Amino acid sequence: MTLLSELGSPHLNFNSEDAMHLVGQLAVQAGPARQRQDTLGDVHVVFKDVSFCTCLAEQIERHLHIIRTN
């Protein structure tokens, strides 16, 4: 959820070392899984939500478009 809200920020700058640390930390977050059969930890359960994944993909695409045009 934090990654999605940060990607939506107009002030996120991927040239910033702080931004890269934030994205890196969020990407590797792990934790216990509620169910042993699940490969995702509790913190990753949001990736099972279709609307979250759609919003995340849109935000990533928006940032990629900005990068491509530069």
- Main sheet properties: none
Q: First CA to last CA: what distance?
A: 28 Å
The tally of strands reads 0
- Overall domain count: 1
Mean pLDDT: 77
- Helix fraction by DSSP (H/I, runs of at least 4): 40-55%
The radius of gyration is: 14 Å
Instruction: Report strand %.
Output: under 5%
pLDDT < 50 stretches: none
H-E order: HHH
Number of helices: 3
Shape: globular
Q: Structural class, from helix and strand content?
A: mainly alpha
What can you tell me about this protein's structure?
The chain has 3 helices and no strands. It is mainly alpha-helical. It has one domain. It is globular and about 45 Å long. The mean pLDDT is 77.
SSE order and pairing:
Layout: H1 2-7, H2 17-28, H3 50-69
Output the keywords.
single chain; 70 residues; mainly alpha; 3 helices
Brief summary:
By secondary structure, the protein is mainly alpha-helical. 54% of the residues lie in helices and 0% in strands.
